[in-house]
Amino acid sequence: MGLTGLQIYKLLPKKNCGECGPPTCLAFGMELAQQKTTLDKCPYISEEAKAELGEASAPPIRLITIGTGESEIQVGDETELFRHEKTFFHETAIGFEVSDSLDQDAFLKKVKEINELTFERIGLELSVDIVAIKNESGNAETFAQAVSRAMDETDKNLALVTEDPECARAALEKSASSRPLLYAATEDNYEEMVKIAQEYEVPLAVRGENLEKTAELSEKIAKLGYRELLLDPGSSNPQQYLEDFTQIRRLALRKKFRPLGYPTIAFTDNTEPYHEVMDAALYVCKYGNVVILKEPDPEEIYPLLVLRQNIYTDPQKPIQVEAKVYEIGEVDDNCPVYVTTNFSLAYFSVMGEIEASRLPGYLLVVDTEGTSVLTAWAAGKFDGDKIAEKLKGSGLEDKVNHKKIIIPGHVAILRAKIEDNCDWEVIVGPREATGIPSFIKKNWEQK
């Protein structure tokens, strides 16, 4: 259990210097208890107090790093129960199992399929993160060879799925430099698995028979001096995972219960692809920090990645593009000019439909702080004055031989205001971006 503000205050130097930010040591102690500041902000804290307060002032959910270099991922360090309260910071890492008992061709084929799970949406790349090598052979040499083969074939992070310390050590001798996730320490093997994880400095997943046993096991491991942990509560089905993950998050954040203050990991256990993805979606929505699936089917994984993207997008900072003029296709001086907001989804929807029309065009993007057309209009961020001002400074007059601009049909009311503020003719376009191809075919004279 975390210390209270008064308990922390008793260990502080009581100088009330204000150098840490808050005006008094008591206020600083209160902020430490609420995880709103860090212990290193106090320049006068003693080493003894640092040792005693270090764990108490640590984040309620530990930040764990898997992998190295550009593919490195971080999980944990969350501070909220609900996304709308602030935001979620480190998105769920998604991976797939590959058995070491597969023959070489089948093994390489599946790793290749995982590598190819990369998609583009609203200008951002969506991809999976982990290849989990499962030790189904039970043989240390076979497992190590499979891990080595995977390292040659993928730049994804690795998870080593084995409960056999001998197999774990053999695999880590090949892969420790890439900092894979080791799964899993259990009641039967945790002492040896902790020694291996410490030796190779890799994160270790802990799996108990249930939530209570998992908490007890993580506490035992913490007493051995190792805290680079992830938790699998040993849940038997998605409903139990939901209940256990919710309890873990609540106890870690609200009660500062340290034995459960770690990221979580879940493996799907459904052989029906659609049901498997539904289970994975549940874990992504409700506090799963690492989720490992079985089959890498693109048509099922894409919506899962989109769901993850939406959940881990900061609700206070919409995804947006740069506000400027974009050239779509091989433009010339007779191309139409469209206008939209800098909300990423709006921009990429309009851009895609302009491309589909097979008529190149210019797209004038107005800065609306990442809000959509109707939202921006209602908030006064997408009005006639602003569009006219953006149009005047765009340089479009030098790029086209006409002065016609197409605005979204939902804001037809802005037509008169734009024309009053600049000498461009305003054409009211379709309400939805999908109407652009047919609209431009009927309403734009091509030379």
3D architecture notes:
The mean pLDDT is 92. The strands form five sheets. The chain has an eight-stranded parallel beta sheet. A three-stranded mixed beta sheet has the order 13-15-14, sandwiched between helices. Strands 1-2 form a two-stranded antiparallel sheet. 39% of the residues are buried. Helix 4 crosses helix 5, helix 12 crosses helix 16 (436-443) and helix 14 crosses helix 15 (415-421). The chain has 16 helices and 17 strands. The chain is α/β, with parallel strands linked by helices and 447 residues long. 38% of the residues lie in helices and 17% in strands. The protein has helices spanning 5-9, 25-33, 47-53, 104-115, 140-153, 165-175, 190-200, 211-223, 238-254, 273-285, 298-311, 344-357, 373-378, 384-392, 415-421, 436-443, and strands at 64-66, 73-75, 93-99, 118-121, 124-127, 130-134, 157-161, 181-185, 204-207, 229-232, 265-267, 290-293, 325-328, 337-341, 361-366, 404-407, 425-428. The protein has three domains: 5-53, 3-methyladenine DNA Glycosylase II, Chain A, domain 3 (Orthogonal Bundle), CATH 1.10.15; 64-311, TIM Barrel, CATH 3.20.20; 325-443, Rossmann fold (3-Layer(aba) Sandwich).
